[in-house]
Protein: Isochorismate synthase MenF
Organism: Kistimonas scapharcae
Amino acid sequence: MLPYDESMRILADKLRQCQTRQGWYRMEQPLPAVAPLAWLHGVDSSCRLYWTERSGNRSVAGVCPELDLTLAGAESLGETFALSREVLQAIPGAHFYGGMAFTDQMSAQWRAFGYGRFILPRFELIQQRAETVMACNLYLPGGEESRRKCHEAAAWLERQASRIVVQDTDGYRAPGIADRYCVPDQQQWRYGVEQVLTAVAGQTLHKAVLSREVRLKLEHPLHLWDFLQRWHSENPRSYQFALQVESGDCFFGTSPERLFRRQSRLLWTEALAGTMTRGMDASEDQAFEHRLINDDKNRHENALVLDHIRDVLAGLCERLESDREVSVIKLRHIQHLIHRFRGVIRPGITDYDLLTTLHPTPAVGGSPWHEARHLIHTLEPHSRGWYSGVFGSLGLNDTEFAVAIRSGLLRGRQLSLYSGAGIVAGSEPDTEWQELDNKINTALALLDG
Ligand SMILES: C=C(O[C@@H]1C=C(C(=O)O)C=C[C@H]1O)C(=O)O
Ligand SMILES: [Mg+2]
């Protein structure tokens, strides 16, 4: 394998050779192993994104949007997906990366992210199993403009050749937490939960997921990319994602939950809901797992998601199977109930259909959705923005979206961490409050040092 800087120069030369061409191009060049997060650390771009699949098979760092599809509202989603498809047909190996908010009710702090944003990066560092590749996606309009773009991209690559930073996570320092407060506070939370329980008792609602924002003021700047790496090593079987926009604000998370994965017409999705802490040792952990599997309230939380997915996918799938038995997935501090689905979608069903049909599931929204949505928007004092939205990678033959939970928004030294809990018959306000804490414990422990 050629050294890193030599490989980057080869790609830069390939780019210069394209200067007389016209249309969409994608070029790839193998590189020596470089961790995408380590690369993001040193790379020169005002917009950076990161995506890693839960399987661990593929991690991508993307910079310098070649095409940036920012959505003002839900109504432009169909058009955006259609446009992305046209581009992907021209460069089939490429992917758009990005995400979308929980709903279109968002406060100003989320403006830079839009309702949704899907980016085709000009440069992508892809780590796929044992291989590392640098890819370049470029639209060449022809003539002088093609020449200018090719030279600009080549020069950029050559500049980066010397900028690679070798990541030293042992050097990670927790920034420390100077101040924290919760929105809603515990008293407002109790009120919200009571309101949901009243609606549940009145039989207009089965479940609503209420959430909380913990606003932290950090003592020192957060070394974001190192932090993400540390967080992922605590929960290695999770998705990880980040989008840093031009202002420097960054939305990121480490989520265990899949919205869906599609490969050609094969589909995988899941009902992930119901939560318990981990035990202090193996036998206590086993006891907690047993309790979780046999707990009516947690089973009900999960069953509502399961039923919803089965109902809404019936029309989109030719075949759909789910696990017969619920199982448990284990994270660093908590464990969840999970039911997996496998299916075959009907010909002509698109990622747009899947996304708009599945999102938001009752794992983050509620059931029925219309009632839950109304309660969530009237009771939650904060704006969820992209928290509990979706984040993922959109391809021609392979698309995967995570549910953007276990996530946060970093703005300078202000960091908001979000978590929610499914409120159903049998929920107790203070136990659910504790569940909110449990869901952010892994991230908090890395920040507090
Ligand atoms: C809403 C969140 O998580 C969801 C709610 C769960 C629950 O209430 O048991 C479990 C997993 C997720 O479906 C979150 O982490 O913010
Ligand atoms: Mg719960």
Notes: The domain at 4-165 is CATH 3.60.120.10 (Anthranilate synthase). Residues 55 and 270 are 15 Å apart (CA to CA).
